[in-house]
User: Fold these one by one.
Assistant:
Number 1:
Amino acid sequence: MKNTYFITTPIYYASGNLHMGHCYTTVFADACARYNRLLGKDVFFLTGSDEHGLKIQRAAENNGMKVEDFVQNRVDHFKDVWKALDISYDKFIRTSDPEHVACVQKILQQLYDQGDIYKDYYKGLYCVPCETYFTESQLVDGKCPDCGRPVEEASEEGYFFKLSKYQKFIDKLIKDDNNFLVPESRKNEIYKNFVKPGVSDLCISRSTFSWGVPLPFDKKHVAYVWIDALVNYISALGYGSNDDSLFRKYWPSDVQVVGRDIARFHTIIWPILLKALNIPMPKQIHSHGFLTQKGDKISKSKGNGFDPITLSNRYGGDTVRYWLLKDGPIFNDVPYSSELFVKTINSDLCNDLGNLTSRTTAMIAQNFTNVVPEPKTVVPSQDDEFIAMMNGVKAKCDDAMKDQRVDKAIEYIFDLVRYANKYIDMTTPWSLAKTDKDRLATVLYNLHQCLSIVATLLQAFLPQTADKLCAKLGISKSDFSNVKYSRDDYGMVVDKGEPLFVRYDVQKEVALLDGEIKEAVAPAPKPTKEKVKEKEPKQMITIDDFDKIDLRVGKVLASEPVENSDKLLKNTVQIGNETRTIVSGIAKYLKPCDIIGKNVIVVCNLKPIKLRGVESCGMIICAVDETCDKLTLVTTADDIPSGSGVN
Ligand code: MSP
């Protein structure tokens, strides 16, 4: 049996900044890709950028940039967002890649030669941002049915793709193949609105602008951006090139994830194009809904985007992943707001998972000197159901993930987490600590087993959290094919350390986020940074000068953002017997959870100053790279009591 799994996202328009809505498609596809890798499949996960067309040419002009520089800048931005969200793509394709351009041209030539493309004259109502012609009856209130903006009358000589020739084929595919397009509601909608009325031939060339792939048989025209873009799914695999080994290995695609706005292109033009080329059909087009705000699709054109980098810098990439995967629009539209986002972090990640982890590791630390105890006394009425849940969760996740039901898999994992918290309340380990050490050993052992299973399963969904959790539990990632309760996994050393997730003040965060986001969505891309000048060497000092600086080791007990500032963190630092408040300008680089519990080096005899109304007594030392892009804490190689001198 084929053990490959080829999953794709749409390629993103290289025109503006990505917002939370965009991220849903890719985070969702990433979770599926990761899960299938863990199942041992040979996965190829493709994403990329859609760089041609009038919309992008105009966006570059509006930004006063050469179009090549503009798209490069957008690609850099996309890659930054995907890095912040830990997207594990195997290939990032650009439609400006010469191999892609060659593939598009080869395909167009073949379709032309076999009579599927013919020349005619086009007249219609054209939406520039969507690069699509509409008929009068397709408009909604006289405007573009996709983006709601005005359409222009346009007419041009062009080349047409004979979609109508394939009417019977597309009718059967959409109507009869229940797996091809999910969910069923989308299948019915596409069939009713686009297939049943009859598909018309499609104008696949443009001659009013030049930023695109020239038609090989008439260089005055460039290819319609949707034909150019759809081909990415096979050009990325080397289709039609001298080396098409990837195509032979991975095609047909297993899942192509698309938002509902572009399902039409992927379920009509795309399969007909493949059919005309005699290429097998994708196994599934998974079409999700929209993230909305106040009832509207979140979109950059409406200016109501939410910046994923702001969110991930502040709360961590996994919090964004969690919200999208748990509450995102797997099929239907769902609303998004800062409040929903922060509340979910607090309730699920901090209260449920974070508390379970800190309670378990703290009790093992306290009662068994950090070492996971061997299980002793079993109480079936308390343990059996818990163990059955641990043993059953992987199969349930596998089942859900066969249909890409990421939402269900997450729910099963968090049901187990919530059950484990109830198990603590039921078994009251704090009382057992005084009365029954043998039973306590079993209870804590079971909780440790449960968290190990949770960490293993979370790898696909929250990869950073899974790593942190493994480190705390003293385990290496366990074998994904054997996620089962065992009675023999004791003796590891747990590390209570800093909490997994920090709890936030919802009101404060919402005020801050909604303010910050307004600034962050301003789409103008910045030209690439000039190289920062190297620092001048500082004047020499003597050992006596150095001796004047009181450097000591401190331990960060707490850290939180300073109100109305996106740069400052207010840290509570223990230095020997003393506790100080130190404000640091590091919020752009580090989140409170990155620094709480860490040893830091403090300049203790710096004169206090007030920053945003908070008195700061000392300075935490950090290392910063030349361009100020990267900052990291200077810490101690081993643990050492706070207050220790540094010299
Ligand atoms: N370039 C085309 C795709 C060509 S694929 C051959 C395109 N790009 S896009 O940048 O506009 O959209 C990329 C993805 O983001 C699409 O799946 C789209 O549906 C999704 N989303 C954009 N806004 C969205 C929401 N508000 N909510 C959920 N997803 C939405 O289309």
Number 2:
Amino acid sequence: MEKYIIMGGIPLSGSVKISGAKNAVLPILAASLLSSGVTTINDVPRLKDVQVMKEVLEFLGCSVEWSGTTMKIDGSKVSSIEVSDFLMRKMRASNLVMGPLLTKFGMAKLSFPGGCAIGSRPMDLHLKGLATMGAKIEERFGFIEAVAPGGRLEGSEICLDFPSVGATENLMMAAVLAKGKTVISNAAKEPEIVELQNFLNKMGAKISGAGTDVITVIGVDGLSSTEHTVIPDRIEAGTFMTAAAITKGNIKILNANIRHMEAVVAKLREMGVKIIEEAGGIRVIGTDNIKAVDVKTMPYPGFPTDMQPQIMALLAVAHGTSIISENIFENRFKHVDELRRMGADIKVEGRIAVIKGKRSLSGTFVNASDLRAGAALAIAGLGAEDATIVDSIYHIDRGYENFEQKLRGLGAKIIRVTETNRTGIK
Ligand code: UD1
């Protein structure tokens, strides 16, 4: 198992370049299955989750080349419509191949996604939408089998019960080759949805409305190959902003789109952090006097649930009492006990956390339970007195490219260590 050892208390300084967005590239890679040729994707971050999606595409028969940050996927080579239990368990977002497989081949078979550390995360909205488009869906022997009668889905009107990101993406991808017009209302509005629309339209799809709550898709007969560069990762950018704030640092964030981060930027400014748009980047300047604020996670453009743990780490050292309401995932407070080990004063009641700010946190041994919880603990460690050891950092590797290298570039003292047992075996 690998761990981080972090010596806290060093103000971050310098500049950091944000990588391509994990949550944009995963649906784009799934959508490349729809192409009749080779798709080229640039700014693909070197992440564990992206590696898993590559394995899913290869399992389905695609040939995939990944060189540096460019990935080439040959979507004409698909030879299977089934994703194994093994790959579905590795990453829930593997379910994003459901829509493309079903619409292109008239059938798809996916192992049922298991539980998840941050909540139950069902797929009912994806499946209900596909059924509205005419798919016959059966759940048996741990698999979801979907078949489009006559080999083609029918365009239809779908109203999502909740603006689920994954369901919106799966249904957009399913609709691009369906017969006729599909209207998805109460759709998710995240920048990654707009990005998927842009990518699919470059391939020849006819989609409009992404970024609003109604998306319209006119089905076409086929999609061709294209080249695309992925948008920057707004959650990675927000994580570095929070790291700068907790260390009272002064950093410049390069390759970030501040328009995608308005809720996070507004909250940080309310806390007293200075955020200034400069030529080529965003400057973040910490303060000695972090103010307590209340945060409610909401679908975009609200405050992202993927930034909740990191902001909690910062609020643990704010002046005053803050309240965080987690409205997206029912179980996303796993970092609380670990932050408490570092001296944070946090009480949780259902989906509400009450955080009484302390003067400082103290370094100790903590364990990352999931991706963003891991990022939050690293941030807490950067701001804490003495050394913090963050265990299970494979979670952080799922979603942050070169995390410790980027932090070291900003002056942080952080190293990765690999635990060996007495035999010397890793
Ligand atoms: C995506 C992001 C994830 C982010 C989340 C919310 C990717 C790869 N992942 O996940 O980082 O935290 O959006 O912004 O983009 N739900 C249902 N039924 C469904 C689908 C979802 O009840 O069929 C519920 C979920 O349990 C959850 C909520 O809807 O409570 C939000 O989930 P969703 O927006 O679908 O998240 P993901 O697409 O899984």
